[in-house]
Amino acid sequence: MTVPARPPRRSLRPPSWLPVDGYVLALLGTVGLAALLPASGGAADVAEGASTGAVALLFFLYGARLSTREALDGLTHWRLHLTVLGSTFLLFPLLGLAARGLVPTVLTPQLYTGLLFLCLVPSTIQSSIAFTSIARGNVPAAICAGSFSSLAGIVLTPLLAALLLGGSAGGLSADGLLKIVLQLLVPFLAGQVLRRWVGGFIGRHRKVLGHVDRGSILLVVYTAFSQGMVAGIWHLVTPARLGLLLAVEAVLLAAMLALTWYGARRLGFGRADRIAIQFAGSKKSLAAGLPMASVLFGPQAALAVLPLMLFHQMQLMVCAVLAKRRSRDAEAERSPEPAPAGAPGPTAPAPDTTVAPAPGPTAPAPDTTAATRA
């Protein structure tokens, strides 16, 4: 007796065009945990100390992973990298400053501070590479562009935050600069110096250290949102304000996607380079932005990172759809277009109708004996 085959089980997976980032779900769960069980008193001091150590560890690993030789090799494509840096640290901040007119009718001052900080954060590396690869763009350029942006962001993001945010980010006080140097720059430089000895270990244990990275960021988020709960800042955010914030961020992302794509075309870049510029120049790094916010904003970091967390998930969803569209466009350009119905097919070569000359008397064959001897 033949046993009928079982029908395949249907897995409850989201549509391919709507990627659900498990890490973002973990971030949301961490925010919920901080709302229900915020760290306070002595536990808050322990969490803050652990968060400080986690930030230093993160930037040490960033420095140990970044290959200086690869970064220097990428300097040959300097026009592309300058375009990405200009998009990340010039166009984005200008749009953020323009959004100042939305306060207080659309955005509260606290949410606007977070939105402007979002515009100062460096670009991503992993997702820029992934989306550039899906769209069949210049992947090596995306790797170098993301690395340059992360490296420049260690210096430019705190300086721009101190310049544009003023007192919201601690200003240019000696204490704020010392925190930046000790928690961000010194660990990064230590990672670069020790990369010769620890680079191989980090490469072999990349997956495990990736969990360390994410766990450290979750700890930073828990500490920041616990401080926000204790300080009672969440009464400033209503569902209507969150909806307006999402709408503003959607316009910001659409504007940057358009500016990077059409701007790169006007600058004379080819299609593969334009793809790398669009995906590297329109995104912001959650992994770099969260630790920086914890250093720059302190107890006010919760509202400062909320726009960045929302923008991160939005950019993943939109760029996933866009990358697949770019890939289909590339396939359409490479494949020949089918001929429309009723159109004549390719013309066959005309037969040779030249009249052959009539056969005459056969000429004697030439004597090849001398040529053979030679």
Characterize the biggest β-sheet.
none
Mean pLDDT: 79
Radius of gyration: 29 Å
**SSE topology string:** HHHHHHHHHHHHHH
Approximately how much helix is present in the residues? 55-70%
Write the layout of secondary structure elements.
Layout: H1 22-36, H2 42-65, H3 68-73, H4 78-98, H5 109-120, H6 126-134, H7 139-165, H8 174-204, H9 206-231, H10 239-266, H11 271-281, H12 286-297, H13 301-334, H14 369-373
Helix pairs in contact: 1-9, 2-8, 2-9, 4-5, 4-7, 4-10, 4-11, 5-7, 5-13, 6-7, 6-11, 6-13, 7-11, 9-12, 10-11, 10-13, 12-13
Task: Please give a structural write-up.
70% of the residues lie in helices and 0% in strands. The protein has 14 helices and no strands. The protein is globular, with a radius of gyration of 29 Å. It starts with 21 loop residues before the first helix and ends with a helix. With 374 residues, it is mainly alpha-helical. α4 (78-98) packs parallel to α7 (139-165) and α4 (78-98) crosses α11 (271-281).
